[in-house]
Design goal:
The structure is a homotetramer. With about 475 residues, the first copy, chain A, is an alpha+beta fold. Chain A has two domains: about 10-240, Glutamine Phosphoribosylpyrophosphate, subunit 1, domain 1 (4-Layer Sandwich), CATH 3.60.20; about 260-315 and about 325-430, Rossmann fold (3-Layer(aba) Sandwich), CATH 3.40.50.2020. Chain A contains 17 helices and 24 strands. In chain A, strands 3-2-4-1-10-9-11 form a seven-stranded antiparallel beta sheet. In chain A, β9 (about 185-190) and β10 (about 195-200) form a beta hairpin. In chain A, α9 packs antiparallel against α16. At the A-C interface, α1, α2, α7, α9 and α10 of A face α1, α2, α7, α9 and α10 of C.
Chain lengths: ~475, ~475, ~475, ~475
């Protein structure tokens, strides 16, 4: 799948001599969760400093900028926007100064009552600086009348609805919170006294931190110097809504999310897919790298040999220029090279994780046919994607989703495949566990947490004006 | 004088097809009032866009950036910081979005109760983005419960104390306000339906706008489309405190400030100076260009020939590098070239507008002696500068002011002049009018508007942390 | 293998409305051959314009810069330096103006008599602008007394010794030349009247040009408008020296080089390797992506299941910052993620294309063991790498090549593998064809073209001074 | 005068611990001679490093870049192009590496046989990198067969015709040469063992070097470590052609050029002008700063009071944006402020140094009339400017020179002056000395050194192509 782009990745580190450095590494490991912007706030003896920029982690930070981010605690954020426009103005973490010192916040998810809260705050005189729903939390904490910061944080979180995993850094502590339904993952690791909280466990692995546990749905933890992790509150909802798309596509295969290895989950999906929809092919290969595990599972179950039929190009710059003319399916050609010696004269089975608009699939099929494939069978390791997501994943509206418009056979015809089949819900949940603990609204349309009216309108919070008191950091 | 650096310049334009362009020109004409940063906010059909940058107007804006600032109303600001650190974070105009749309503010002056107001606002939950006292006004307006914007603006201005000339741009109108004592100048001009409000009349001249009147002390005017200028309120204090330093040094000589041509005022000071302190010289010359008019007045009154004894270098970049060694009085040499054929063998009279630390005067005297002057007589066209300013001018603290530490004769000895004399208060006010309408606290120590405790501490609002939600514009 | 970095890639296009655009695409397809700098020279009606920059093709060029490169003929170059320092000064193509108009040159290879020729030219008054051996050709052509450009080009090429594939662009024609031994590949493709000459066929594929033939060893072709391709001369040496490392590692798997698909060649090497050195494992996987084909061949021959045991990270920026401490094997961890579900509890066979210093192999083995592998068997799909290359490939000196210092068993112990085995020369040539047509000096030490003394000294042409008349293009 | 823009300034320094720093200061003092680009080459123990950039000296160099320019000898150059396009490619000094090490050259003047020499060199195989006539000298030296560098330098200089002052830096010595006619100034100063050679003495003054002597027309000196200055050759032409425009406008007033203070010369011109063409005015003022001295001379002779009637704006950025509309005479208004209190109701005499196209004069007269002048009398302190210059000064072609098209009275009418008068040749030479020692071709059309055909065609050396092997320094 190359359609739905990723949501956000967040990392927090405490009690580390150079906390920003580990946050940087964690963000790097979470780069797949957001490539639009990256930012780090580091706290040093009551003060805090932010650096945010457009682009990849490795582009936003260099040695000099990392070194300026001194301090023993830090939080970071990779963003792909789900609300708010794609500008630096909406890069995170947010850092503000208020009555009680500084407050820095990083968020993964999507609030479904942000507009209501914002209107209420503005009516009381709050001035918003961005179009991010995340800023609501900052104002709620600043405006709280609670006698302590702990209580102010809890009071503010209480007012939020939707999918969220938050990291909140203050002069005294790092707070980490997950919404009561547990839509988004958030894990806690440790290395000595250093605590690392991150969206996925792959961020813990890179810095050599040991996984300890997940932040639970509805839990707020408070991390203080010396590696102390305390639960401030734990009030889960009566149902769980773990995002199944994390298992299917988002999470890195080497991460453990919601208690399960994403690679195992995908391999299982591939096996179930082979069981449900075998294909009469000579070999099977993945669309690298997101469907590697599913393809291996398919090969294992089907007995077909696994091949490397497509090679993914490592040098695509984001600024790559489309030629003015002449080159068909250029966007796919520039990303994938077919390996003729694998494909030529073969009946190939291509396993992909999902289909969004169908354009990439069509181009891939053409590419593979041009490389000499006799037959092309597409197998999709998830159910048809038919609905948008209001909980933090950027899935296009229904009219752009090919599976919302067509049957599988019609899609097969459209993309030019000899056959095409999707994994069933049953198959999916045989691979990843109980359906009632997961949210699969993007496949089923079953939205279990209700949203405020008008949330479909993506421009809800778009700037009617470009605002801004400039940041002390320039960028 | 090269010591006290300038305050700020502000310009507002309404009902002009390309308002930002005229604001740009106005800022250019006011460049002498602040070279640290420049900014423009333009309003277009209910939306607003800001651009701010460090440096001169001509450096911050290019054609592309000016073109993006579309709209028929705009305000601009040149800054030399009097409070707040010299970073982009403190560049003006401030632009925010709040309940009632956008709000842009540009300020010239210094509030003497800003800290008190800020603390009160933060306690109620306001989050400040900068260390500028100007931001206080923005929050006061946003937090106002008044039923209309006009009333909210008046209520907010009511709470301010100190020296201020404000421009406030909203979707509907441009407001311009001067504090009840009238410390800082603010003039209104017109060309057709286009209204221009600016710190000095030279900004009106450059764009060909006709001077109409000053905004009066304690007056708030509201400018609306079609060239309508209405007085919302006019409540002056019982005394006037027009800054006499504007006449002596700040204002451009071709400006009319407080109803008088600055060039005429200075020429008068030069004449009075010659009357009070004649000098036995062969010729007289200025330290170009700030004392040109005073030197001409001195020459006229004394009968001594006026010469061009020093030439000012036009190519000094702000980033000019000091040589590691070897070159004495480099800072002055790089700025002024003595003209040997004027100076050699002559008894010269140098007229300067003021002396701050005395180091420049000393270097100038040495430079002129090295060029062959027989005698050097310094004449200063203002009284001894002995006190700091809390009303918007950046004069160093007493311990750095040479006239607060020494008599005129001691200063003469220190700078190496054969004689040195200052203009008296009587002479000064013979040249510029009634003393009781002016503030001369920096000369006399007579502060007529009281200030909040601790205001001397320049770091009062310095960031304890670097804060910031980044601006949508980056910079 | 991640050690020996790549050489250069060259592309030329004629008779295309926007030749630079196709050259850009060709360079993109050849990005694996050099990532240090990229450049294009476009010729338009007797004039030429160059753009060169440090970094990837997609970083050096944007739409605006490509559009400025107007013209119907163009050549381009990706560089990883084999001689000369890694600065923009040594980016190619070289473009100069001389008596007969402009002359642009792009080169892949390494001249072994460059110093001798340069000294001779300088003694006659030539002023060199770079430290590249390529510049020698430019001066030889400019200094030639031959009556035509064709003859001047031939005379100049005659004087060169070593490995080279050259593209030479003049106002009238594009020349392409390959050295008499045919060390480096160079292919000719066509689409309509448009001729594309490129290092590898994958560049032809991306733009949809049909492969026509290779430029032969010792051949010089001249391409003129309208798609005319003429052989100016064809004088091969009596032996061929096709670089076998192109087949093993350099060429993209989907390229046909020296008449053979690189993917097929590698798959064959993998099969031979499995035949020669079977391993008692549960599964086999590659070090993606360079050994994908060899691993698939190994799996096919051995019957072991092929897996995706390592995932290659797509987001590594070149500027990635090493953490100051704490993270072991960081360089490899940042590039490859082990897939625990594939590896845990398994006896794994890792197929790599080659081993240079052994450090990456050691880190990979540790990574895989930490992911739970029971046993790790390394299989290398080429013979031990023991000698430097003087023909255009950047292989370290012997003292850094682990296989020049140790036996296979010693290397296995050093990298921590349970077993390690290399492909034999016999096996290699069973896969790629006749040994006597190939150069394998880096494996065998058999240098068939002699080099000038001192060529080992990599600093031979290093600038004793930084020189330069700046280019009209700045960069 | 604001029309003919300046030529070039050159500085060389030897035997100074940080030679580049003094060259930087010297260039700064010579900034008026060229603002298009600046460059320095520093030599350190047989190596050399260059930095060149577009813009002012203070923009091109910062502390870091100056520090990299290590070494005890250096040369520098400010350029305003007289031939060659205004790009970085043509910035000087030129630095190349050739058989005998490095060679750096800085040039002030214009060669009148450059094209002939260049063609001859290219025919012999030389590859030119720029379009500057200066590069010819570099190739002549590199191609020389003379047994020593001294002889090679002399042989190369022998072949040049036209106006030139050259600085040539080699690993062993600094050479300074002036053409046999002595068109351009070049002075030698000393401070201890440090030798400074510069276009004007103001560069010596700034670094505290003592003026020793001029390089004589036709002289080549060689400066070696320890402050040794030897004459290699002294072969003057039989006439002198010192550029009288240096005295009128180019040289800084505090410089001594051709043995005379420029300020004295101009004051003399002003006195002669007042004698020849008295004016019935109330006061006299200059167009600051170029005619300050002439205006003072006029005032002295005429007895009219000297005033500061125009103030020159110090903040004009080169990138200043012209408003799209609305502002008449903007270019002059932005540069000069009229001082109303000086001008209003007065009959003013404006002294300017020269008139080129007449547009600035017209705008100035309007500006002064709008400020209330009763009468405006223009007095020009040089003869009518009627001919182009082929010796290094950028004067427009005849058709653009207003005095080549009109009589004085017609010009007066065109610019709107009540009267206008020029200084006579007699008056000019009473002020500056013998006419037969000077070149006044731009006034008289008397070209005493003949030029090669076609030199009028400014595009003679314009790049038919954009060439260039990029410089190791990028810029």
């Amino acid at each position: 799948m190359s359609g739905p782009r990723e949501e956000c990745g967040i990392v927090g580190v405490t009690s580390h001599r150079r906390a920003a450095e580990w946050v940087y590494l964690g963000l790097y490991a979470l780069q797949h969760r957001g490539q639009e912007s990256a930012g780090i706030v580091a706290a040093n003896a009551g003060n805090a400093l932010a650096r945010r920029g457009m682009g990849l982690v490795a582009e936003v930070f260099d040695e000099a900028s990392l070194e300026r981010l001194e301090g023993t605690a830090a939080i970071g954020h990779n963003r792909y926007s789900t609300t708010g426009s794609p500008t630096l103005a909406n890069a995170q973490p947010i850092l503000v100064n208020y009555r009680d010192g500084f407050l820095a916040v990083a968020h993964n998810g999507n609030l479904v009552n942000a507009r209501t809260l914002r209107t209420r705050l503005e009516d009381a005189g709050s001035i918003f600086q961005s179009t991010m729903d995340t800023e609501v939390l900052v104002h709620l904490i600043a405006a709280s009348r609670q006698p302590s910061r702990d209580l102010a944080v809890l009071e503010a979180l209480d007012q939020l609805a939707g999918a969220f995993s938050f990291l909140i850094l203050t002069p005294d502590a790092l707070y980490a919170a997950r919404d009561p339904y547990g839509f988004r993952p958030l894990s806690v690791g440790r290395r000595g006294e250093t605590i690392v909280v991150a969206s996925e466990t792959c961020a813990l692995d890179l810095v050599g931190a040991q996984f300890e546990r997940e932040v639970e749905p509805g839990e707020v933890i408070k991390v203080t110097p010396g590696g102390n992790v305390a639960t401030l509150r734990h009030e889960p909802a009566d149902v769980e809504c773990m995002c199944v798309f994390e298992q299917i596509y988002f999470a890195r295969p080497d991460s453990v999310v919601f208690g399960m290895s994403a690679a195992d989950a995908r391999r299982g999906m591939g096996r179930e897919l082979a069981r449900e929809h075998p294909a009469n092919g000579d070999c099977v290969f993945s669309v690298p790298d997101s469907s590697n595990a599913a393809a291996a599972g398919f090969a294992e179950q089907s007995g077909l040999p696994l091949e490397h039929g497509l090679i993914r190009n490592h040098y695509i710059g984001r600024t790559f220029i489309q030629p003015a003319q002449d080159v068909r399916d250029f966007g796919v050609k520039i990303k994938y090279n077919p390996v003729t010696s694998v494909i030529k004269g073969q009946r190939v089975v291509i396993v992909d994780d999902s289909i969004v608009r169908g354009t990439t699939s069509g181009a891939l099929v053409r590419l593979v046919r041009e490389a000499g494939a006799e037959e092309v069978h597409l197998r999709i390791a998830s159910p048809p994607l038919r609905h948008p997501c209001y909980y933090g994943i950027d899935i296009p509206k229904r009219s752009e989703l090919v599976a919302a418009q067509m049957s599988s056979d019609e899609i097969a015809a459209r993309v030019g495949a000899d056959s095409l089949a999707y994994l069933s819900f049953d198959g999916l949940y045989r691979a990843v566990g109980a359906r009632d603990r997961h949210c699969d609204a993007c496949f089923s349309g079953n939205y279990r947490v209700s949203v405020e009216p008008g949330i479909d309108d993506k421009a809800a919070f778009e700037p009617t004006i470009a605002t801004g008191i400039p940041s002390p950091l320039g960028q």
